[in-house]
Amino acid sequence: MKCGVDIDARDVEEMYINIDPIQAGGRLTADAMKAAIAFGDGYSVCDNCRSPFRLDYIQNPPIAQFHADLAAWLNMDTVRVVPGARRGFQAVASTYVEKGDPVIVTSLAHYTEFMAVEAAGGIPQEIPKDAKNHITPDTAAEKIEAVIRKFSRTPPLLFVDHVDYQYGNVHDVAGIVKVAHQYDIPVLVNGAYSVGIMPVDGKALGADFVVGSGHKSMAAPAPSGLLATTNEHAERVFRTTKAKGDVTGRTFGMKEVEMMGCTLMGVTVVGMMASFPHVRERVQHWETEVAHSQEVTDALLSIEGTKVLSDYPRRHTLTRIDTRGSFDTVAQQHKKRGYFLSSELKKRGITGVIPGSTRVWKFNTFGLTAKQIRHVGESFVEIARENGLNIL
Known about the structure:
Blueprint: H1 12-15, E1 17-18, H2 30-38, H3 63-74, E2 78-82, H4 85-96, E3 102-106, H5 111-119, E4 123-127, H6 137-151, E5 158-161, H7 173-182, E6 187-190, H8 202-205, E7 209-213, H9 214-217, E8 225-229, H10 231-237, H11 267-282, H12 286-301, E9 307-308, E10 318-322, H13 327-331, H14 339-347, E11 350-351, E12 360-364, H15 370-386
Parallel strand pairs: 1-11, 3-4, 5-6, 6-7
Antiparallel strand pairs: 2-8, 7-8, 9-10, 10-12
Binding site for pyridoxal 5'-phosphate: 85-86, 190, 213-215
Protein name: O-phospho-L-seryl-tRNA:Cys-tRNA synthase
Pfam family, one: Aminotran_5
């Protein structure tokens, strides 16, 4: 089936069990699919935009209420929806960071955190990870002290990932925030792999800012996300325009500078809204999701030579696995080389492992049913056995 002239219809989610690490939490709900069709036109949500002509004030569809609901859900004071987590990083960095400022990030930070700091003229300074691939309060304190000595000033901002994208490890964010606040450094918590798939309480974490990704973890169309903050910071990061035309004298009311006036329109915001009741409910089943992750991880570990590089037991559904001692030994001799694994998985209705990956790779089991989880685990073991690997 074709979508337009030369675009094949995407059928990955209908035809396969998808364990792609970045796609699992972003699968659209049926309600979001329907909303996407109904509100696909670019300015569809603007039908009833009235004074003060800002997205977060629109009552129909209930976008204003959605903002309030998101804030309450995250236990933060104020929320704005944004075009992806990266735009949330950018809004905060451009507000707080001046040219030449040192900004604390971590050695597990996503590249878009670096981009946000760079765009603001800041200089990223990384907190190193420990031997267990964790960012700890102690190493955060050591880095802050080192940066203060090096730059003779306190960093204006610290970024920390609630769950990092490399290992899927859950970090001691509350402890790190406590340390940063002792130096009066505000903290942005990157919740791209937590907001929407596991319970997140911003104030319990002590966060000054919580950023989430709609298309990564909130079953929403791309690009979508959110930026949540406290009353202490809202007026600054969501400051309204003071610009005035020198010829026309024009001013622009309540438009927010970092939001470029309005943010998500049409399909992105309405899709995010349509999925929200499902997202709010599904985070209550996080322990089941973690148990599913553990089941597939254990199946892989039953294959001799396989190692898990993420925390074990698992605390998240995103897992980094090392099969250099198992599947990669098969790849060395197989006619398809490293592509044999993804090929064998596809025969069994499973996709999401990067083709050619048999050394170190990631998978994400979020959202799979118990039956699908069993099939994925059994498939890995079956492929291993068929290719002469020992099962422990």
